[in-house]
Design a protein that fits this description.
heterodimer, A: about 350 residues, mainly alpha, ABC transporter involved in vitamin B12 uptake, BtuC, two-stranded antiparallel ribbon, globular, B: about 260 residues, 4-stranded antiparallel β-sheet, 9 helices, translocase (chain B), AAA+_ATPase (chain B)
Chain lengths: ~350, ~260
């Protein structure tokens, strides 16, 4: 019962964030017009007076952007939960251990190599990016996981240090690509590294939405197994769980999620760390509620960060990656200090 | 019934368990003794299917353990490892509830079992506390309650493997813990327990297996195994062995 009311509250917050995200921006729409425009777009008959402008802005610009924000936020938060479960450590985060950088490297390869070899036909472009980002994320997750484990235990320091090394390595290769890139690729690359929801289009959305739905449907089915995994790999085995399979599924899930999010919106850091932490403070660590709650809270937080990024320097806008890191890095330091006392 | 025949396990090119035969029978409690590094925990890892033996096999009801489906095996066989690392703030009852994971027996039934198992491990007063705020001994009892809940109430065919369940406990709780395990055996369960305290082993176990460098040095009743000669040869320790003045089981006193 407690869980249900918490999920309902988070759902309401998420709906409110969606509404705000559709209404606010360089042109601020009245809240009721926004609602009517959305209803009209999905086919509900409403009074159509003075709705053209609102419908154009909402339908063409803000709705894809909001959907992108929702999906990226939910997927990054879920990847964070999955990673913390896999490493059995609440400080694991796809950005910190280099998975995001690996995915960004994959994306950079796709952008630059794609540009110099002529690339794939237009309709396949978003998928090439997603596949490369996924491959990069998968590679780094597997490497860091290998390095960070010894005798069935995770060494957090090894894992974080391996993450630092992988991030630096990926960064240097991305730097090399930046050096080699032509002007058009360079612009795209820069945006990728900063993370942005700007220029969202339905084309870019599809691969991410597919992954998002898959992850949201699949991860909660393994919630109890994830709980048991937190006890330890041996303990999970004793409770009848196929641990090797679970771990493979988690790694796949993290790589898919982070890969798709990075391909669609670039590097957006710390969502996977902050959101599960805040959620656990609210609900406790039981994955049966942490997973859906993190998806909702991640989506909400990312939309709020995006609204902030849009408004703070309007009409110019900040890349959202800067906003999340600006909030997330101090939060991470706070966790470290609190953990030590 | 859990049976291991001629079990051999190599680890890093070294034979850590050699030619061990074990049979865990309903209602009986087997104690495993031996110095550090004698292969006790490795033996237990093989008996629960976590580690594949190099030679020999482990049979649960005449079927090789690795052919059992995970949840079915877990309903029959529960294992308490030496120490557990749990870094998340689960409530005590949530940790114990994980023992019910293989069952799917419903919230109400599980709730009652959790209460009973916690009571058996003397942990009822810990209800509602966060696992992270517990002391080492309290955590050990919560994990005991978890594995008891996994095979609650215990019947013929169910097996409990415990690796040093009393290592972090005060003297009273060393006894309450082994009494709870004894009660599980009395209901028909089979138990194997690794112990370092020879007198606890003498008091609570029906049979003892004394391991030395991966081999069975002696096995039999506590009277047969706990002899000054055997303990001198395996532990290098000079001891007196006398009957317990009230209970009659062997009492081991260091000289």
């Amino acid at each position: 019962m407690r869980f249900t009311s918490q999920l309902i509250a988070l759902g309401m917050a998420c709906l409110l964030a969606i509404w705000l995200s559709l209404a606010l921006g360089p042109v601020t729409l009245p809240m009721m017009d926004t609602l009517r425009a959305v209803l009209h777009l999905v086919g509900v008959p409403v009074a159509e007076d003075n709705l053209q402008q609102a419908e154009l802005i909402v339908g063409q610009i803000r709705l894809p952007r909001t959907l992108l924000g929702l999906a990226v936020g939910a997927v990054l938060a879920l990847s964070g939960v999955a990673m913390q479960g896999l490493f059995r450590n609440p400080l694991a985060d796809p950005g910190l251990v280099g998975v995001s950088s690996g995915a960004a490297l994959g994306a950079a390869v796709a952008i630059v190599a794609g540009a110099s070899f002529g690339g794939l036909p237009e309709p396949f472009q978003p998928y090439l990016l997603s596949v490369c980002a996924f491959a990069g994320g998968l590679g780094v997750t597997a490497i860091v996981y290998r390095l960070g484990r010894r005798d069935g235990r995770t060494s957090v320091s090894t894992m974080l240090l391996a993450g630092v090394a992988m991030t630096a390595l990926a960064g240097s290769i991305i730097g090399l690509f930046t050096y080699l890139a032509d002007d058009a690729s360079l612009r795209t690359l820069t945006f990728w590294n900063l993370g942005t929801l700007n220029g969202a289009s339905y084309d870019r959305l599809w691969p991410l939405l597919l992954v998002c739905v898959a992850v949201i449907l699949w991860l909660p089915r393994r919630a109890k197994a994830l709980n048991a995994l937190l006890l330890g790999e041996s303990e999970a085995h004793h409770l009848g769980i196929d641990v090797q399979r679970l771990k493979r599924e988690l790694i796949l899930c993290i790589a898919l999620g982070v890969g798709a999010a990075v391909a669609a919106a670039g590097l957006i850091g710390f969502i996977g760390l902050i959101v599960p932490h805040l959620v656990r403070l609210l609900t406790g660590p039981d994955h049966r509620v942490v997973l859906p709650a993190s998806a909702l809270a991640g989506a909400t937080l990312l939309l709020l960060a995006d609204i902030f990024a849009r408004l703070v320097m309007a009409p110019a806008e900040l890349p959202i990656g800067i906003v999340t890191v600006f909030i997330g890095a101090p939060f991470f330091l706070f966790l470290l200090v609190r953990g030590r006392s | 019934m859990l049976i291991a025949n001629d079990l051999c396990i190599m680890r890093g090119g070294k034979q850590v368990v050699a030619n061990i035969d074990v049979a865990l029978t309903p209602g009986q409690m087997l104690g495993v003794l031996g110095p550090n590094g004698a292969g006790k925990s490795t033996l237990m890892a093989a008996l629960c299917g976590e580690l594949g033996p190099t030679r020999g096999q482990v049979l649960l009801d005449d079927i090789p353990l690795n052919q059992w489906r995970g949840p079915e095996r877990a309903r029959r066989l529960a294992v308490l490892p030496q120490s557990s690392t749990l870094g998340f703030a689960f409530k005590v009852e949530e940790v114990v509830a994980m023992g019910r994971l293989p069952h799917g027996s419903g919230q109400r039934c599980d709730g009652e079992i959790i209460q009973h198992a916690l009571a058996a491990a003397d942990g009822l007063h810990l209800l509602g506390r966060s696992y992270l705020t517990l002391s080492g001994g309290e955590r050990q009892r919560v994990h005991l309650a978890r594995v008891l809940a996994q095979v609650w109430p215990g019947e013929e065919g169910q097996i409990l493997l415990l690796d040093e369940p009393t290592s972090a406990l005060d003297p009273l709780h060393q006894h309450t813990t082994l009494l709870a395990v004894r009660a599980f055996a009395a209901r028909g369960g089979a138990v194997m327990v690794i112990l370092h305290d020879l007198n606890l082993a003498a008091r609570y176990c029906d049979h003892l297996l004394l391991l030395d460098q991966g081999r069975a040095h002696l096995s039999g009743t506590p009277e047969q195994v706990l002899t000054p000669e055997a303990l001198k040869s395996v532990f290098g320790l000079d001891v007196l062995v006398q009957p317990h003045p009230e209970r009659g089981h062997p009492l081991v006193i260091a000289r």
